[in-house]
Amino acid sequence: MKAKLSLSSVIKSEKAKNYRLVNIQYGIPARTSIYKSNRVYSKQYAFLYLVPKTLFHEFQNISYFWFAFVVVLDFLSNDEAESWKMYPIVSFIILMVIIMISNFFRALWRHKANKMHNNLEAHVWEKTSFKNCKSESLVVGNVILVMDKEIVPADIILLSCRGKDTDMYANDEIFSNREDLNQDEIEFNFPQVKIRSDNTIRQGNLPNQSNKSQYAYLNMKKVLGNRELVVKKNIKNTEFIKETDPEIINGALKRMESIKVVAPSKSFSSFKGKIKFKGNPKACIVENDNFIIGGSKVALQP
User: Fold this and answer.
1) Considering the entire predicted model, what is its pTM?
2) Is the pLDDT of residue 106 over 60?
3) Does the pLDDT of residue 242 top 50, yes or no?
4) Helix, strand or coil for residue 214?
5) CA 100, CA 106: separation in Å to the nearest integer?
6) Are 290 and 236 in contact (CB under 8 A)?
7) Residue 103 pLDDT exceeds 70
8) 173, 116 in Cβ contact below 8 A?
9) Nearest CA among 273, 234, 209, 193 for reference residue 24
10) Which long-range contacts (CB under 8 A, 24 or more apart) does 71-78 make?
11) Where exactly are the structural domains of the chain?
């Protein structure tokens, strides 16, 4: 007997292909995850190949080729004054040494920043409670708890926030290793946004909140992502869990089974997915409204 394939089942299967299933990870898995680790390694120059990589990067500039060309011409000239021939090469060597020393300290500083981020204490949900672990041990699918004024250890979606007003600001040591977006280059052309004197965005009267004015602040100096994500960013209490009672939140976390997200794209602004639950509600939509970038801080307003 031949099985019949209906149009609805075909559409459903096509939609399923557009989603990627991410299982909820309770704690740190013993075996290696199929995803990349959360370990940060952002050094441009490693100490072992500092000299060759510096020369490679610097000589991509045409001015250095011209400098080297002048040095070669001086050595090939018939001038008997050998001491004059050494001036260009000595100047060139001094310049290269200064650049290498600068790259060395830059690599050392980034190494310390990476080590600090990788050793951050993270609180991971393990079915009944949150356990402490290092930031570098986190995997995709972990549910983590971020305390007040703690550095966010990874790119996360905020599920619940205890408090009315939320302040988010970037940590310069982390974001210096990421793409820089200058605030002056960003155009703000939508309502409910005001630029404060301390270079932050103020968003008032956000939707789906109480009648009281609530504000969210996002430091715009250094943020990972494209301008569309930065401009449309909202830090607000999510629709997912409105309760602040730990017992109610824990009950919701225990019923989470998996997350389905749309296939990855080049822009964070297109993030979309849904969380599957045991019981009701069956699923909950998650988008990038509460997307928080790793390395930032989330603090409750007094």
Assistant:
1) 0.58
2) yes
3) no
4) coil
5) 10
6) yes
7) yes
8) yes
9) 273
10) none
11) 9-24+143-300, 47-116
